[in-house]
Amino acid sequence: MLNGHFNFSEDFTKVFEHWTVWIAVFFAVVAGGIKGVKSIKKTISGDNFMVVHSEIHELLTELRVLTDSARTQVIQFHNGEYFMDGISMRKFSLTHESVQKGIESDGERVQGYLCSIFLPLLLLMNDNEPKIHYTCDLKESYVKQYFESRNVEAFSVLPIKINNQTTGFCMIQWCSGNKAESVDPVYCAHEIRKVTNSITVQLAQQKR
Known about the structure:
Beta-Lactamase; six-stranded antiparallel β-sheet; 5 helices
């Protein structure tokens, strides 16, 4: 107001500056809220990761105890490097394991193994029949030599399928033939199927 008259330019500037401040405050609050939500989601996601993998370990431990086995494992497929022709190397790695006291873990050993040298094992997995197989009955191969080097006398294997795609497998290993023979094969098949189904559900949670 100048000499009793309305000064449009001055008053408009004051109003504009006033609302500019409030708009800036509003967007700052919104941005802070979004950041907070992302932080919460990140925390929840991290907690979910711990829950999922802890549950898988508990399932493997239960399976190992019920079948009186030496090792129970989850092994998952992944891509590795590339061959000279550009084709991806198909590999697998051990991601979860429960081991009987006094038995050596495969945790650091089974990482980035080429699927091509484990074909006899993968063919048995592909049968989707969790029978108890004995290492001595295998044909001479890298798989047989590998199991012998790990003192594995018997094993059972079943694929893990997510959305109808085989993403890995669950395996039981016995380092004592007598223990493997003492397990009811029907009971063993039921237990590994039950645990594999539960593990599949847990792994599928990671993709949500």
